[in-house]
Design a protein that fits this description.
Elements (H helix, E strand, L loop, with lengths): L4 E3 L2 E3 L1 H15 L3 H9 L2 H13 L6 E5 L5 H7 L4 E6 L2 H14 L5 E4 L12 E7 L8 H11 E12 L7 H11 L1 H9 L2 H13 L3 H10 L3 E8 L4 E7 L2
Length: 243
């Protein structure tokens, strides 16, 4: 991989993006969930509940929760009896998740450091693959989608929760102004890291629009690729099936 890629609004090498994204999440890991509450006004909890409701986890099925470091999605999936493998490229995020699981006495989770672009799991290993607010930070998104398809069993489900672009008149522009002016300041005050949260704002702006990402999911081999927009598309749930 020799072409430049976006790290927020800056062009860097793919290798540098992977390193810099890692540094961002190592920096914010311990305050990540508090910041999510502050930035979304607590709405991220409702989005995640809706997301898991769409996944429909079942007792005994194997689910790979990618970029799931702090455990927010995995805990919800495990309540339904699913056998969840929580994977993240960032070891510091996984450490936070393990600590939270221990504090909540959540058992039965497997924790594994993994790169979404090159998973170590065998073909046809999982019944479902979930990724929430993580895909936009992957350096090579098409490779990650193909890996998701590879590790799913026939009939397996792919679900992605992510920020995108709102089509509501005026709301998208208002949110952009809020993101630029407020979120980095909150990051500085609460997490002591303004630049990491400036990158996260920029990464949302750079992420494909809802239908464009739906097309990428289909291109990776998933059937019935769909998108369910919330807040006019500011947050979306994408899904597809391996058949």
């Amino acid at each position: 991989m020799s072409d430049k890629v976006n790290f927020g609004d800056h062009l860097v090498s793919p290798e540098e993006k992977t390193e810099r994204v890692g540094a961002v999440f190592s920096s914010v890991a311990r305050r990540y969930d508090v910041m999510n509450d502050l930035m979304s006004g607590g709405l991220h909890r409702l989005w995640k509940e809706r997301f898991v409701a769409r996944v429909k986890p079942r007792s005994g099925e194997r689910i790979l929760d990618m970029a799931g470091g702090t455990g927010d999605i995995a805990f919800r999936l495990a309540k339904h009896g699913a056998l969840v493998t929580v994977s993240d490229i960032n070891i510091d995020m996984l450490a936070v998740g393990r600590d939270r699981a221990a504090a909540r006495a959540v058992d039965g989770l497997t924790w594994k450091q993994e790169n979404a672009e090159a998973l170590s799991f065998a073909d046809n290993s999982f019944d479902a693959y979930t990724i929430a607010f993580g895909i936009r930070n992957v350096t090579d998104i098409p490779s990650a989608l193909k890996e998701a398809h590879r590790v799913l069993k026939r009939g397996g489900r792919f679900y992605c929760l992510e920020f995108s672009t709102s089509e509501w008149p005026g709301f998208g522009a208002l949110y952009e102004r809020y993101s630029d002016a407020v979120i980095p300041r909150i990051g500085k005050a609460v997490a002591g890291d303004e630049e990491s949260y400036r990158y996260l704002v920029e990464s949302i702006r750079r992420f494909p629009k809802p239908d464009a990402f739906r097309a990428m999911i289909a291109d990776a081999g998933f059937a019935q690729a769909r998108v369910e927009p919330m807040l006019g598309g500011l947050v979306c749930i994408w899904s597809g099936w391996k058949i």
